[in-house]
């Protein structure tokens, strides 16, 4: 473990740990990505263990034919007794023959190429040549060795960026909102952008393969999720420029996120205030309904989703909670600069994880509620500590003004449950 100092308006120590960690792998992102890109299919290439993980994580989808599956590599493949490339080609051909609605196919590696004995990047290039223009075949890694939880989305979008159409150099400036958002949130944002006079507006990922946005030097992009470092670099290699902003969580975060965008479009301040006044007031009222239960409560974040820093900011500044330690798998200092500046000086930031050491710090701090992964929740509950599963923060729409109350409710309900159980 080492302590480093971040550069910013407040220099504060950051605990950096590299040890055993408790976090889902990047395959988990398939659960929300396959719902967002409506004509994409995610084919996980790997072991039976990974097949069981995906099926368990996405078991709620059993009532509709899913757009994800697994190509299991067995002992014959690993021993070289079968040509794994031929087998993959055969499975892809069967899939695309049966599912004519698929327009984009992602080959998702559950392990590094050295482990599964298959170069998925070359396989994707080969299959793209065969199936274009009807189907685009891309690949990325969801391996737990190489990715954690939300990095699966980052890897997916970073693989998608080089395939986006080029925005002509003489085109008007376009806004790109980057990060998978629930359709209801995307529709709300579009409506607000239209009322503010900001546009044209694109979202990445789009809902279909045919509507993926163009990108070029006249693209201004803003991150809607804080875990998209590789995607941001890929966009900037295509000439896009980032709009620095906090993240749209809570009334304050959403207000300043939109404000950063409208400044780029030179929208008058009185128009901004007029358009956002009603949704801001609704967000404030929704948050106030939870403040009494949350105010003064001490909260500890284990590193999991990379949403930890903006969530801690929102819970502290808008609901009066006291963040103790805010752990995150990776701390992107540039993308989180505005969020870090808003955290109280008493907060301990940590990057990475050595789970035993962090558990010791958590128990010593005696928090009222802990945000963590499923693997840590039951042991902590057994210690009498209330927990919130971090995975719910990805499956629940929490961005924007209209979802501010829902976001707060995710933290209030476990505390209410604990009070009922104690009675």
Q: Quick summary of this structure?
A:
This protein is an alpha/beta fold and 423 residues long.
Low-confidence stretches: 1-9
Portion in beta strands: 15-25%
Number of strands: 15
Output the structural class.
alpha/beta
Q: Cα distance, first to last residue?
A: 41 Å
Radius of gyration of CA atoms, rounded to a whole number: 22 Å
Count of helical segments?
Answer: 17
**What is the residue-averaged pLDDT?**
88
Structural write-up:
- It is globular and about 60 Å long.
- It has helices spanning about 30-35, 50-55, 75-80, 85-100, 115, 120-130, 150-160, 185-195, 230-235, 250-265, 270-295, 310-320, 335-340, 355-365, 375-380, 390-395, 405-420, and strands spanning about 1-5, 15-20, 40-45, 70, 105-110, 135-140, 175-180, 200-205, 220-225, 240, 300, 320-330, 350-355, 370, 385-390.
- The protein contains 17 helices and 15 strands.
- Residues about 1-10 have low confidence and may be disordered.
- The protein has a 7-stranded mixed β-sheet with strand order 1-2-13-12-11-14-15, with helices on both faces.
- It has about 425 residues and is an alpha/beta fold.
- It starts with a strand and ends with a helix.
């Amino acid at each position: 473990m080492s302590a480093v100092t971040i550069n910013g308006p407040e220099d504060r120590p950051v605990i950096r740990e590299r040890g055993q960690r408790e976090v889902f792998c990047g395959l988990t992102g398939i659960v929300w990505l396959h719902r967002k890109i409506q004509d994409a299919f995610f084919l996980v290439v790997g072991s039976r263990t990974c097949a069981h993980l995906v099926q368990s994580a996405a078991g709620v989808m059993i009532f509709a034919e899913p757009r994800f599956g697994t190509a299991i590599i067995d002992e014959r493949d690993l021993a070289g007794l079968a040509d794994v490339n031929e087998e993959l080609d055969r499975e892809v051909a069967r899939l695309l023959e049966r599912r004519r609605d698929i327009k984009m196919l992602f080959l998702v590696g559950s392990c590094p190429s050295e482990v599964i004995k298959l170069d998925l990047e070359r396989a994707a290039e080969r299959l793209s040549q065969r199936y274009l223009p009807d189907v685009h075949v891309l690949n990325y890694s969801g391996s737990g060795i190489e990715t954690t939880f939300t990095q699966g989305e980052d890897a997916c979008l970073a693989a998608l960026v080089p395939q986006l159409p080029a925005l002509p150099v003489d085109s008007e400036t376009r806004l790109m909102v980057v990060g998978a958002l629930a359709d209801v949130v995307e529709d709300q944002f579009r409506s607000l952008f239209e009322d503010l006079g900001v546009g044209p507006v694109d979202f990445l990922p789009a809902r279909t393969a045919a509507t993926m946005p163009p990108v070029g030097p006249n693209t201004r992009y803003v991150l809607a999720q804080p875990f998209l470092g590789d995607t941001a670099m890929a966009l900037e290699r295509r000439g896009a420029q980032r709009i620095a902003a906090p993240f749209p969580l809570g009334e304050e975060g959403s207000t300043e996120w939109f404000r950063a965008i409208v400044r780029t479009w030179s929208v008058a301040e009185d128009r901004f205030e007029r358009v956002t006044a009603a949704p801001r007031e609704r967000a404030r009222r929704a948050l106030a309904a939870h403040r009494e239960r949350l105010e003064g409560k001490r909260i500890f974040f284990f590193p999991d989703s990379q949403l930890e820093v903006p969530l801690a900011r929102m819970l502290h500044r808008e609901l009066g909670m006291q963040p103790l330690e805010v752990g995150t798998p990776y701390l992107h200092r540039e993308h989180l600069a505005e969020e870090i500046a808003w955290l109280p000086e008493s907060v301990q930031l940590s990057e990475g994880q050595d789970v035993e050491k962090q558990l010791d710090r958590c128990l010593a701090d005696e928090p009222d509620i802990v945000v963590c992964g499923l693997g840590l929740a039951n042991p902590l509950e057994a210690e009498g500590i209330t927990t919130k599963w971090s995975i719910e923060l990805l499956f629940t729409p929490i961005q924007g003004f209209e979802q501010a109350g829902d976001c707060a409710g995710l933290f209030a309900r476990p505390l209410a449950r604990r009070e009922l159980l104690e009675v």
